[in-house]
Amino acid sequence: MPPLVNVDGLTKYFPVQKSFIEAAVSKKREYVHAVDDISFQVQRGETFGLVGESGSGKTTTGRLLVRLDTPTTGEIRFDGQNMVDVDQESLMQFRRRAQMIFQDPTAALNPRMRIGQAIKHGLDIHEIGTEQERRQEVLRMLDKIGLTPPETFYEKFPHQVSGGQRQRVVIGRAMILKPEFVVADEPVAMVDVSIRAQILDLMISLKKEFGLTYVFITHDLATANYFCDRIAIMYLGKIVEVGLRDEVFKEPKHPYTVALMSAIPVPDPKHKLQRMIPRGEIPSPINPPSGCRFHPRCPYAFERCSKEEPGMTKISDTHYVACHLFDNPPSS
Amino acid sequence: MNPLLNVRDLAVEYHSMRGRVRAVANVSLSIEKGSTLGLVGESGCGKSTLGFSVLRMVPPPGKIVGGEIDFDGINIVQQTEAEMRRIRGSQISMIFQDPMTSLNPVKKIRDHFIELYRTHDQSVTKDEAIAKSVKLLDSLGIGGDRINDYPHQFSGGMRQRVMIGLALALNPKLIIADEPTTALDVIVEAQILELLKQLKSEHQLTMILITHNIGIVAEMADTIGVMYAGQIVELGPTEDIFEDPLHPYTKGLLESAPNIIHPEKSMRPVPGSPPDLLSPPTGCKFHPRCSRVFEPCPYKEPQLLERKRRLVACHLYD
């Protein structure tokens, strides 16, 4: 079966805003290389994780996938159809099928719109059903996302419910159009630990019910491990490793992936941490390092790493890594 | 046993238009010299308010309404504001969550240190203060030449190192770290945790570490205090609590924590959501979410009692 989403050479540069004086002194235009030539597929029915630190380009990738931003270059095919150069009408059609869940539910909801109306809004825009039918649909959704009794929650404003319930509203709003494809950008980052698993479990049950395909964006490897079938690790606008969950977690190949895994505090005082922490911090995406973007921080870097950008090397049919350590294994 | 800090029956309230919120309710705890107490709980459980109370810096409209805080023989609650100003920074200092809002954006790093040194000791000259801070920053992994930079010229991790430097500058006896790594990325977080561990062993620091991250307390704390709805529900040695959590909330909190090594033992949700402190539940505040609730729970508030080398507030252990 062809993949639901096929991304090829996706790139997004944002121009750097300069002050009047800076612009007068230097004519050179600078760009933030947010996403730089990445390719991947999302299969129907899977949960694909995009994992990385701030500045890795994971959120920009997510926004491009649902076309909230337009790529600088590259191709996004959704169900075989190119979604980069499309007219307004096809984009409208596409938005019925692809939705996004945002990180901060307080910012994502209009504080003056009642919860019921916020969820109903998508149905209004796409003119689905009569007013009465829409209301019934929203009540059913409220029940499904665990906001009961639905009649009461329909009339509430976002500030009248808890943070976890607000995130449920954002999820319900994304699901009301019965989309096939949902990009969830850190849906549990702002939610308390004890509630986090509740929200993820809700998303899992909605996935089963609607036959959804998820792209799950997170900085938290442990959450990705709980939730995703396949994972791509991003660093400075590039995918450095991609594979099935167990491949990436049990046999991480890229030094950056290994570092990320070793950095996480483990909730077990008896666990002896063996950290491999790279030096320094993620460099500026305005002038990313030459060659492999991780090379200035990589403990295994050798000459080639600063000169040549590594391509994707196959480890297994499903596991790929972009690192010179693997593309030409040393003879020893 | 030689506790550096002894808190007894501390109560802190916030008064708002909608009513009175008891953010910290009758909390008692003590910290031994040289040990680290990890305070864990969800947002709104009162852990940060408790930390602020020890410095008597509860943000208004919050007020300490009862109890005692005995720090090295002085009762913090009774001190004058002038006394407190002398204590803050030199005896007790704080590392805040967000280093960007805690540093003055229009002051060079140098001036932050000069001000700190000279406020507490007028005899220190500017040059002495600069020399001291260069040496200190060097030991924290920041080149001394960066002392003339402004906060915005530093990355998040570097700013947090500066904050740690400011907290350590006057060799305080107690450091309160309020979510010191929450605003940072995983790798930078690990760097800061390693730095704190190193400083702890080098300087015998006594620390209160406030965090929602169970992994961080497992790594850093000698003792853990679990807070729920303004109260300590369980307090004891870190290994014991992880080995055999007594309070159902502690158990729930540990099981809800993500664990990358044993994913099958993690991310189990605690049902329900934290209570609204404007109208907290009666009896045990955790009873509406508790799986082991029985007759006395909704009516009678459990006392913090000693069980198996630790303190627990739950009717299961009465």
Q: Can you walk through the features of this model?
A:
- The complex is a heterodimer of chains A (332) and B (318).
- Chain A has one domain: Rossmann fold.
- Chain A has 14 helices and twelve strands.
- Chain A has helices at 20-25, 58-65, 88-97, 105-108, 115-125, 131-144, 150-155, 163-175, 193-210, 221-227, 245-250, 255-263, 303-307, 324-327; strands at 5-15, 31-42, 47-51, 73-78, 81-82, 98-101, 181-185, 213-218, 230-235, 238-244, 313-314, 320-321.
- In chain A, the strands form two sheets. An eight-stranded mixed beta sheet of chain A has the order 6-7-8-3-9-10-12-11, with helices on both faces.
- Chain B has 318 residues and is of the alpha/beta class.
- Chain B has a single domain, classed as Rossmann fold, CATH 3.40.50.300.
- Chain B contains ten helices and twelve strands.
- Chain B has helices at residues 47-54, 81-90, 99-102, 109-120, 126-139, 156-168, 186-203, 214-220, 238-243, 248-256, and strands spanning 3-16, 19-32, 36-40, 62-71, 74-75, 92-95, 174-178, 206-211, 223-228, 231-237, 305-307, 310-312.
- Chain B has an eight-stranded mixed beta sheet with strand order 6-7-8-3-9-10-12-11, sandwiched between helices.
- In chain B, β4 (62-71) and β5 form a beta hairpin.
- The two termini of chain B are 27 Å apart.
- Chains A and B meet through α8, α9, α10 and α12 of A and α6, α7, α8, α9 and α10 of B.
Number of separate strands of chain B: 12
Binned strand content of chain A: 15-25%
CATH topology of chain A: Rossmann fold
Tally of contiguous helical segments of chain A:
14
What percentage of amino acids of chain B are in beta strands? Answer: 15-25%
Can you tell me the number of structural domains of chain B? 1
Task: State the major sheet of chain A.
Answer: 8 strands, mixed
Summarize the helix and strand pattern of chain B as letters. Answer: EEEHEEHEHHHHEHEHEEHHEE
Q: First CA to last CA of chain A: what distance? A: 41 Å
Total E-strand runs of chain A: 12
